[in-house]
Amino acid sequence: MTPPVRVGQGYDTHVLVEGRPLVLGGIVVPFDKGLKGHSDADVLAHAICDAVLGAAGLGDLGGHFPASDPRWAGMASTHFLRHAVTLAIEAGWAVGNVDATVCCDRPRLGPHVPEMTKQMAASLGVEPSAVRIAPKSAEGLGFAGRGEGIAALAVCLLYRTD
């Protein structure tokens, strides 16, 4: 018997490079670098997408949207997230809540969290109160602390709808 709730976790990281906009949580964050990737490289949306897919038992982001497929070049990651939620709904699940962390020293993300929360909630089909985004400093440690990249982690609770 399938339990009435399931939890999935997601993780993503991308390198920061010059010449690209920084897209996080479905918004463009003003910064002198952006994340390198086949799509818009939104690490937060990617981590949340993997958490949704994992909770629903539906594989991972790369399986649904392989970087080798030119259709996804430059695609907004909110598209991927909406698709993941649609698949979960078709499998009899609904999003309960998402808790996510973004790790980088720069840029400072605090001022952008309310808009990122709204965008992620809209893509998930939930109220903003069901989404928490926590920006965390790497305290100068590792790639995120040195400004070489950004990492994101997410947990998603799904509940049965049938």
Task: Kindly describe this structure.
The protein is α+β, with helices and mostly antiparallel strands and 162 residues long. It has helices spanning 43-56, 61-64, 77-90, 113-124, 142-145, and strands at 5-17, 22-24, 27-29, 34-35, 93-103, 131-136, 149-160. The chain is built from five helices and seven strands. Strands 4-1-7-5-6 form a five-stranded mixed sheet. Helix 4 (113-124) links the parallel strand 5 (93-103) and strand 6 (131-136). The model has no long low-confidence stretch (mean pLDDT 96).
Topology overview:
Elements: E1 5-17, E2 22-24, E3 27-29, E4 34-35, H1 43-56, H2 61-64, H3 77-90, E5 93-103, H4 113-124, E6 131-136, H5 142-145, E7 149-160
Parallel strand pairs: 5-6
Antiparallel strand pairs: 1-4, 1-7, 2-3, 5-7
Helix pairs in contact: 1-3, 3-4
Summarize, please.
The protein has 162 residues and is an alpha+beta fold. Helix content is 30%, strand content 31%.
Low-confidence stretches: none
Helix content: 25-40%
Counting DSSP H or I runs of 4 or more residues, the number of helices is: 5
DSSP summary, beta strand count: 7
Radius of gyration: 15 Å
Salient structural properties:
five-stranded mixed β-sheet, 162 residues, globular, 31% strand, single chain, alpha+beta, two-stranded antiparallel sheet, 5 helices
